Amino acid sequence: MTGGTGPADDYDRACAVTGWAGVISVGSSAALVLGDEPASTCYLAGERTFVRWLAADSDAEVFGAAEVMLNDPRTEWELCGVWETDGAAVLMDSAEAGTDLGVEYPGGGTPEQAPIDVPAGSWSVLAAARTDEFPWICLVRLVQTTPQSFG
């Protein structure tokens, strides 16, 4: 609850996501939340997969482990919800208000954000984590559940 006295806001709902990922309502839209813990995250557009660095010594280790998991038919994917989107999204820290993304901080700079090219549609959100051997990573994959509309 915001300040403990009012109704839950977007940040409160994002923090309430349990597990590796989830989907929450934000106004008349939905937001994909990468849950569990803060982690450096990047998006592999060709794989429609978010790669989250949980514990590793280098980028190469993270991406090597991600490649192994993505290509291993034994990777156990957990369904974390269905995300309905009208198109491109932004990867951002949930501590920032979406309306503040382009607003400069008083001391300079703007909130970090990264564009995510996702076609409009319905996406199953699947997550898998590797924490039994080093490096530790989490993958959150988007699998389209409805055909992309044209027009």
In DSSP terms (H or I, runs of 4 or more residues), the helix count works out at: 2
In terms of DSSP E residues, the strand content is 35-45%
| Secondary-structure element order, N to C | HEEEEHEEEEE
Largest sheet: 5 strands, antiparallel
> Largest beta sheet: what is the strand line-up?
3-4-9-8-5
Percent helix, as a range, is: 10-25%
Average residue pLDDT: 79
How widely separated are the two ends? Answer: 41 Å
CA-atom Rg in angstroms? 16 Å
- Please state the structural category: mainly beta
- The geometry reads as globular
Describe the structure in your own words:
With 151 residues, the chain is mainly beta. The chain has helices at 10-15, 59-71; strands at residues 21-26, 29-34, 40-44, 49-55, 78-85, 89-92, 113-116, 121-130, 136-144. 21% of the residues are buried. The model has no long low-confidence stretch (mean pLDDT 79).
How would you describe this structure in keywords?
single chain, 151 residues, mainly beta, five-stranded antiparallel β-sheet, two-stranded antiparallel sheet, 2 helices, 9 strands, 39% strand, globular
Helix and strand topology:
Layout: H1 10-15, E1 21-26, E2 29-34, E3 40-44, E4 49-55, H2 59-71, E5 78-85, E6 89-92, E7 113-116, E8 121-130, E9 136-144
Antiparallel strand pairs: 1-2, 3-4, 4-9, 5-8, 6-7, 8-9
Compact summary:
This protein has helices at 10-15, 59-71; strands at residues 21-26, 29-34, 40-44, 49-55, 78-85, 89-92, 113-116, 121-130, 136-144.
